[in-house]
Amino acid sequence: MTQLDTPSGPDVALLRRPARVRLAWLLVVVAVLVAVMLASVAFGSRIVGFDDITAAFGGANDTLDQAAVVKRIPRTILAVLVGAALGLSGAVMQGVTRNPLADPGILGVNMGAMLAIAVAMTTIGLSTATQYIWVAIAGAAVATVFVYGVGSLGRGGATPLKIALAGAATSAALASLVVAVVLPRGDVAENFQSWQVGGVGGASWESIGNVLPFLIAGLVICLLCARPLNSLALGDDLAAGLGERVALIRATAALGAVVLCGAATAIAGPIAFVGLIVPHMCRLLVGLDHRWLLPFATLTGAVLLTFADVIGRVVNRPDEIEAGIITALIGAPFFISIVRRQKVREL
Asked: Which of 19, 80, 153, 246 has its C-alpha lying 20 to 30 A from 36's C-alpha?
């Protein structure tokens, strides 16, 4: 591990947590998730009382408040699923690259999915989120391979700093290509821009059903890589000495993260910073062990995005601010603080 991502002695002691502390935090995170899910169905352009919420969960749809709850339920479920996918994919990417600044947005994965969807919209006329899934996953995969390939060039191979720089440069280049592809097509620009902001306002049970198999597949792949990621954190040479197939671990874990990120981007748009913030928060709670970190990142990502969606509906009623804007407002200062704390000594 490099100086960029290796905690100092006191930090290591801080990040070790006994099982009882981890279980206590697990209960706290689950309780907070339940609370924000209830807030998600209760708050919006209309504030719904507890009686109407329970009646709507029982199948009632007789009043405007109950109808509002019925409409908000799939939105809440989608926010939980997308947040969980982004939180988990961010934790896995940081483990694969051994880079605390790794994030699906920073490494160009989101932008690769966005460019693929932009090309598909302008060339073959894709128009719904459920049609974007395979295209988004393919674009995310190509961007991931490209960034890792560029970051592997030169002396020292794929260092964390080189991968982060390659991801930032690739994201900037792909963003320009997105504009070049969409700008001449006024007939698709409005639809693309509404998707590009990032949010879960267009949720439906059909769209959830279409994306759910991909999210489950990505979740299973990532969780199965938890123990090998612990070995990878020790360094490639030591992991290989322990009998791990380093290249296979990286490829498999990255595949799971790409599937999660691509599917989440297809259904909700490119939502930034969730995958960056959540793993750092979870390491402070449960430590560095990926067997604990990955499940916690999944739950905490769900909490963060659902909370951001609720905030976006409350602060500007009766209008909404998309969750992607809220996460960017939260994530940008957090990212700056990480960079300042790490001091990027390798530069």
From this structure: 19
CB atoms within 10 A of CB 328: 19
DSSP 8-state secondary structure symbol assigned to residue 47: -
Domain tally, the chain: 1
Residue 332's contacts (CB-CB under 8 Å, 6 or more residues apart) are 273
Closest CA to 294 of 109, 154, 86: 86
**Domain limits at 199?**
34-65+72-336
Q: CB within 8 A of 274, min separation 6: which ones?
A: 83, 86, 87, 90, 301, 304, 305, 327, 331
State the CB neighbour count (10 A cutoff) for residue 172. Answer: 11
Question: Which H helix or E strand runs over 1?
Answer: none
Residue 8 lies in a domain: no
Residue 3's φ and ψ, nearest 5 degrees, are -60, -25
CB contact set of 172 (below 8 Å; sequence gap of 6+): none
Question: In whole angstroms, how far apart are CA 215 and each of 78, 218, 227?
Answer: 11, 5, 20
CB atoms within 10 A of CB 106: 24
Residues 203-228 have a mean pLDDT of 93
Please report the sign of the dihedral spanned by the C-alpha atoms of residue 233, residue 236, residue 241, residue 244: positive
Is 346 inside any structural domain?
Answer: no
pLDDT in tens, 250-293: 889 999 999 999 999 989 988 888 998 899 889 888 888 999 99
The CA distance from 210 to 243, in Å, is 38
Calculate helix-pair angle for 109-123, 160-182, nearest 10 degrees: 20
CATH classification of the domain holding 167? 1.10.3470.10
CB distance 104 to 87 below 8 Å:
no
Q: Is residue 233 part of a domain?
A: yes
Pairwise pLDDT comparison (36 vs 182), residue with the higher score:
36
